[in-house]
Specification:
This protein is α+β, with helices and mostly antiparallel strands. The chain contains 11 helices and 18 strands. It folds into 3 domains: about 10-135 and about 315-334, ATPase, nucleotide binding domain (Nucleotidyltransferase, domain 5), CATH 3.30.420.40; about 150-180 and about 260-310, ATPase, nucleotide binding domain (Nucleotidyltransferase, domain 5), CATH 3.30.420.40; about 180-250, Alpha-Beta Complex (Actin, Chain A, domain 4), CATH 3.90.640.
Length: about 325
């Protein structure tokens, strides 16, 4: 096959919160929030990524800053296509040959949702599109040898979905995907602050709270943080102090949903693989697993050692990058 000079091979972790792009031979070349600002009247894209994220909740009526992916799947097809096109052009420049692209998807997506991802990437300029399940990409990125006949359990907590899979011989034996992840933690904080303090806060403030003082396991020392929001009684801006013990109250419910889902997957795991997992432990990847104490909570509830992978946020993208090395094999299979 005449291969020389063909377009680049690109791996994309198309996340609900962040898009990470990996180019074969170069590594991770782009990491941007998956936010797009669109002019409502003309439909043209005004900003993508970090620039658009700064506009969230701060736009005039004719401009809408949205996240085109919700809970791991495409909720706005046209905007996703424009976003992908923007990122592909930014990474590859104007290419002579279109790139081959490998995109990560949650483990339990439907055929229709898969087709939407493939179509969006093709429209954005891909020559060929391959899909890889997030837990498998996360396991490869975390440095686990997934080709061996032994069980590895990966819990990948992203922005929109948590993917849990038991992987053996390069494929997932048992998997589950639930729509509880980083975004649900943010929503829980917004609801809690509204209910307890009568203050309305935005997504970004909730995320700051989660990152700085959020926890799902009691801290030895209570931490605090000042935030600003709108008082729902007077309608005026107000500053309050929030403690990490309150964050524990707000976040424990979604955290327990993830723990229960892990429990459910373990119950369905064949005994030999379950024995492997209890020996090797559970690997956690994805930005959502960085919430303070989530690993300890999971360890306490399952009785299995829990490890957080190195560079958790990039695990899926790195795994996609390593999978790119075998694209020619995949092409041969087709």
């Amino acid at each position: 096959m005449f291969k020389f000079g063909f377009g680049q091979d690109v791996g994309i972790d198309l996340g609900t919160a962040t898009v990470i792009v990996y180019v074969k031979g170069k590594g991770i070349v782009l990491r941007e929030p998956s936010v797009v600002a669109v002019d409502n009247n003309s439909g043209e894209v005004l900003a993508v990524g970090g620039e658009a994220r700064r506009m969230l909740g701060r736009t005039p009526g004719n401009i809408i800053a949205t996240r085109p992916l919700r809970e791991g799947v495409i909720s706005d097809y046209t905007v996703t296509e424009k976003m992908l096109k923007y990122f592909i052009n930014k990474v590859c420049g104007k290419f002579v040959f279109s790139p081959r692209i490998m995109i990560c998807i949650p483990s339990q997506v439907t055929e229709v949702e898969k087709k939407a991802v493939i179509d969006a990437a093709m429209q954005a300029g891909a020559r060929k599109v391959f899909l890889i399940e997030e837990p498998i990409a996360a396991a490869i990125g975390a440095g686990i040898d997934i080709a061996k006949p032994c069980g590895n359990m990966v819990v990948d907590i992203g922005g929109g979905t948590t993917d849990i899979a038991v992987i053996s011989l390069g494929g997932s034996v048992v998997s589950s995907s639930l729509k509880v992840a980083g975004d649900k933690f943010d929503e829980a904080i917004v609801k809690y602050i509204k209910k307890k303090h009568n203050i309305a806060i935005g997504e970004r403030t909730a995320e700051d709270l989660k990152v700085n003082i959020g926890c799902v396991y009691p801290k030895i020392q209570d931490m605090e943080m000042d935030i600003r929001g709108r008082d729902l009684i007077t309608g005026l801006p107000k500053t309050i102090t929030v403690h990490s013990s309150e964050m524990l109250e707000a976040l424990i419910e979604p955290a327990m949903m993830i723990v229960d889902a892990v429990h459910g997957v373990l119950e369905r795991t064949p005994p030999e693989l379950a024995a492997d997992i209890s020996d090797k432990g559970i690997y956690m990847t994805g930005g959502g697993c960085l919430i303070d104490g989530l690993d300890r909570l999971l360890q306490e509830k399952t009785g299995i050692n829990v490890m957080i992978a190195q560079d958790t946020v990039s695990c899926v993208a790195l795994g996609t990058g390593k999978a790119l090395e075998n694209l020619d094999v995949l092409e041969g299979k087709r």
